[in-house]
Fold this protein.
Amino acid sequence: MKRVVLILALFVSFAFSNTFTNIIQNVSLPNVNKALEDINSLEKSYSKKDFDKLVKSWKKVQALYLAGSINEDYIDTPRYIDIFHHGNEDITKQLNRAIKSSDDASVELFRNSTKSINAIEYMLYKDEKLSKREKELLDVMFKAIKSHLMDIKTVYSNYLKSKQRSEKWGNAVIINKLIDSTYKLKEWRVGDPAGYSRKYKDNPDNKRAEYYLSKNSFSAIKAILDAHNEVIGEKEYKNFATMALNSGAKKQVMQVRKALQESYEELSKLKTDDFSNAQGLFEALSKFHNAYYLSLIEELSVTAKILDADGD
């Protein structure tokens, strides 16, 4: 089941500069630029080390993906880059077939899923050496992801040049994304492999981890927490926390920050990508999610409705 958060009533406006614009300028655009830098480095090196960097930068882009709210044409762009928890497709069979094929690499990789970051992980980590054919396939993947990241950058850059949307609209989009991100973080990225999610209750399996093959799952989790810290933490630029504090929600902001810090601490206690002792992390992330959804929203007079829909 997919939890979809719809904001039905929006925040009141505040007298200072637009929060959404500040987030795009100081968080979203720098993060996508870093992801582009990392994919360019990976394109040159084909190295696992550079892939690890891309995972971190991409997760920060994905965690606070706002381009789809700015321009609906780009709602599905993250799914073109990352297929985790979307569909039941086994891309390994398709990629192995592509490796053996003599057809043009771009023709062979006609599905978005076979040009995803997940496909790159498989190619780089399935064994120790890369053949000429595997590099040809990787080049197609790099080009596709770079194109999608450039689309995201263009949406953000154009937004900053255009007439800004209202503070009410922007604040609703941001809190909706924060809630959605923390839910998926606790349920999909920790709850599923650790056996604490509703779907896999008491049935743990590390192979459900997001980056099981490359052992980047914990790095991805930390990157997502870092993205939240950029939005709700104490920063030199005005962020979502600035708006909330100015609206009188200091207690609630402190609760969110405390839960975020606890999540960092619980993550640091665990061995790399071993979810067997992740109960503390799952509980901390649950508090983090609830601090947004039950505490901060209520104080800021936002009404959210949870809809259960078929899907992941």
Observations:
- The chain has two domains: 1-18+166-312, 19-164.
